[in-house]
Write a structure and sequence with these properties.
- This is KilA-N domain-containing protein.
- It holds the Pfam family KilA-N.
- The chain contains 7 helices and 12 strands.
- The protein is globular and about 50 Å long.
- Strands 2-3-1-6-7 form a 5-stranded antiparallel sheet. A 5-stranded antiparallel sheet has the order 8-9-10-12-11.
- Helix 6 crosses helix 7.
- Helices cover 36% and strands 25% of the residues.
- The protein has 201 residues and is α+β, with helices and mostly antiparallel strands.
Length: 201
């Protein structure tokens, strides 16, 4: 997945940073390994090529992008491990904003084209989303406050059978479209995910 990952390192620090609660210790737990396997099987049902290695990513280095990142469902499970109060707080924040924050540190991050986390700042959250049948697979449409509608570039590319990443790169380089591109947080069953979109009108 490349739409959204949870920063487990920030979560651990926010809950006191006790050594025994480090992300690597939780990930080594037998119950956690079973959870990872179960989630991986579920996601492979949607995409046979999906591998468990995509559920957890570790980035080395002392900069702000270093740390352990995980799929949103694993992040919620880790929050429960850290603290029941923190777990409920995370769920409430996701419901309210679609983006979990601790002070100035975002727990939910987006992976850039280089595969490394990039900070999400002030991404608008959709108040609802719809699936529109035009041709082929359904296309995701996000609705913002004021009833502004935006369409997912990825869904359009998949519907017409072209490479999403290549098309996004072309759009970012095209002066006619680059200023129209916007990241919108869309709430899914697996958590909020930032999706690159274009205005529908």
């Amino acid at each position: 997945m490349n739409d959204g990952m949870v920063n487990m390192t920030n979560m651990w620090r926010a809950c006191g940073g006790e050594s025994r609660n480090r992300p690597k210790n939780w990930l080594a737990n037998a119950d956690t390994k079973r959870l990872v396997d179960t989630l991986g099987e579920k996601l492979r049902g949607q995409n046979p090529a999906f591998g468990n290695s995509a559920l957890v990513k570790i980035y080395r280095g002392g900069n702000q992008r270093g740390g352990t990142y995980a799929h949103g469902d694993l992040g919620i499970a880790y929050a429960m491990y850290l603290s029941p109060d923190f777990h409920l707080w995370c769920i409430q924040k996701i419901r309210e904003t679609g983006l979990v924050q601790i002070s100035d540190s975002k727990l939910l991050v987006k992976l850039g084209e280089d595969g490394l986390p990039v900070e999400q700042t002030n991404f608008p959250a959709a108040i609802r989303h719809e699936e529109v049948m035009v041709f082929g697979p359904p296309i995701l449409v996000a609705v913002l406050e004021g009833e502004e509608k935006y369409v997912s570039i990825r869904h359009i590319c998949e519907a017409i059978g072209i490479n999403t990443q290549m098309q996004q790169k072309r759009l970012k380089k095209d002066e006619s479209f680059s200023h129209l591109l916007i990241d919108i947080n869309v709430q899914h069953t697996s958590g909020a995910k930032a999706t690159i979109m274009l205005p529908l009108d």
